[in-house]
Amino acid sequence: MPRWLHTLLSSWTGRFAVLVVVGIALTAVVSVFWTPFDPMLSDVRGRWAAPSWPHLLGTDGTGRDILSLLMAGARTTAFVAVGAGLVATLVGISLAALGALTVRWVRESIAVLVDILIAFPVLMIAMMISAVWGGSLWVVVFAVGIGFGVSIARVTRPELRRVQQSDFVLAGRASGLTAGQNLARHLLPNVAPVFIVQLSWSMAVAVLAEAGLSYLGFGASLTEASWGTLLADLQRYIGVHPLTVVWPGLAITVTVLGLNLLGDALREATDPTLSRRSAQVHVPEVIA
Amino acid sequence: MTLVVDALVVEIDGTRVVDGVSFAVDDGQRLGLIGESGSGKSMTALAILGLLPDGARVSGSIRWDGVELIGMPDRELARLRGDEIGMVFQEPRSALNPIRTIGRQIAEPMRIHERIGRREARERMVAEAARVQLPAPESIVDRYPHQLSGGQRQRVAIAMALAGRPRLLIADEPTTALDVTIQAEVLDLLLGLVTDEGMSLVFITHDLAVLSQVATDAVVLEHGRVVEQAPIATLLTAPASPVTQALLRDATATLWRAADDDGIGS
């Protein structure tokens, strides 16, 4: 087992985070092939069934199985989180690299551009786009992806610049690495901890944004199961069937919490100077 | 002549930091570049490796085995770096990558230039760690830089610079950031390794006392210009330029202070 994975799983938060993220991913995959019931199949006679066999989490107002809806919703969540994460990575790394490693006028223009872009509220823009051209999950993916890509660039760029000016980057070049190899071996791994926290945070926000936009009717379409849509459907009956609202709410909360904790745990695991385990290792302090 | 620097000029954003510096280093010769900070000695070293910062303009000539290095494509220069010319930097705190084990960093030049496998790299990184007298070389190669002392880190940096068995080592104030006692040990180690391998050395410092221990000849720089160039013995006994005289005064003052501390002088 690699050292970073070991560190990741050595803390409670790390284990919880991995459990949540792996759980969501597995559920999303399984839901493609199998759910207890067809999530979109309504059964008028079985409306508002209490949690029991065979409807483990009960049914909603049209008799749809809530567990199946949640499982299918995990697919939407995973799609949006991964999609927004990929877009954010691409945008963030490109902007940060252009803003830190190129000639001065490009660097400074990028810095200004990032400062301007960061002023735009992501969710507001996603809603505007959705309102004008109609909502879809892709709008959520790109709005959150680009928006958070800019924040990632904002945080990663100075970090990249700082690392680039360290002697070990120069030492890497002095050892014979080409500029590209040096970037991959010394520069990017050293900004990874900062980057990972931002990325997991942006994925968590993507999950929230999807749920929020779907709740408002701008995200997932009616044929796609989404925790946000489900929450919006169920909360109208919160006075009558309060328990049903808990399930999608819990799914969203746990997922967002898991993604956030994963970022922190990964940062600790990829940065040896932060790891408690390595700090305790006894090093012979021979006078050198 | 292995390395010939001729009328080297380096301009950074329009400011001349190196202004017509010329010197030559023979096989096995140990040359010092000495001067106050800002005299252009580090920039001269970086110019030799082609690693000047962005916005630097170089003219003049730097020849390695008769081949011109100025204007050489970076890819070809990269083949020389770490393999034929190695470099040790001043600050051991920042000269090592904080998130890579020191063994991997020691092995880096050999993995770049010799394409050796994992197992061989492991054996050789341990051997190199032992060569620079790091304690417990078998296990220390798995440590991270923050777990080592400053002196140990500088030994790692030296091991890294020498792992590719270069013919020329450039050491940029390798002992300045260290405690005086550790300074002497690292200096001894460096000198021992350089003379054992018959390597050439370019040693950069502002301290004539340190330089007199490692180099045979010296180039004295001020404001990017060569003000004096002579064997060390001449500089110590008959310094011609005011700059050298000042450096010599500093060096003797340090020695007297050290002697005072030891209770010898008083």
How would you explain this protein's 3D organization?
- The complex is a heterodimer of chains A (288) and B (266).
- Chain A has 288 residues and is mainly α.
- Chain A has one domain: MetI-like fold, CATH 1.10.3720.
- Helices cover 72% and strands 0% of the residues of chain A.
- Chain A has eleven helices and no strands.
- In chain A, 46% of the residues are buried.
- Chain B has 266 residues and is of the alpha/beta class.
- Chain B has one domain: Rossmann fold (3-Layer(aba) Sandwich).
- Chain B has ten helices and ten strands.
- Chain B has helices spanning 41-49, 74-80, 102-114, 118-131, 137-140, 150-162, 180-197, 208-214, 232-237, 242-262, and strands at 3-12, 15-25, 30-34, 56-64, 67-68, 85-88, 168-172, 200-205, 217-222, 225-231.
- In chain B, the strands form two sheets. Chain B has a six-stranded mixed beta sheet, sandwiched between helices. A four-stranded antiparallel beta sheet of chain B has the order 2-1-4-5, covered by helices on one side.
- In chain B, a hairpin with a 2-residue loop joins strand 1 (3-12) and strand 2 (15-25).
- Chain B is globular, with a radius of gyration of 19 Å.
- The model of chain B has no long low-confidence stretch (mean pLDDT 89).
- Classes of the chains: A mainly alpha (288), B alpha/beta (266).
- Chains A and B meet through helix 7 and helix 8 of A and helix 2, helix 3, helix 6 and helix 7 of B.
